[in-house]
Amino acid sequence: MDITIYSSFLPHDDPEAAVAFYRDTLGFEVRNDVGYNGMHWITVGPAGQPGTSIVLYPPAATPGLTDDERRTIREMMAKGTFASVLLATEDLDAAFERVQAGDAEVVQEPTEQPYGVRDCAFRDPAGNMVRIQEVSK
After folding, report:
1. pTM for this structure?
2. Are 76 and 84 in contact (CB under 8 A)?
């Protein structure tokens, strides 16, 4: 069996800010931007990797949520505890400088972790945790 990760979903609450962060700060391509009833689903992904994407979605559009659940999601997004993504790069310091220059909220500067990885962390405009781990090829 050959299974790959094709898309992952992260919530957003401001399509313009989400595009500015993922396209302009991280350098991802905007692959799709679908609007419906004033909401946007935006698909982004790393250049040269068409088989891997992140779908930025409006959490309010999730079917079956109660008003209480929507409120909880908004509160968790504001605290940065609702969703996260782990990215990888060969040059963590350069990636950190680029993201920091884009005015992203720094959560953790590049750090050697006791569990054997070197990484840093930011919050995207919706509060999602974005960790970037250094990898070697």
Report:
1. 0.91
2. no
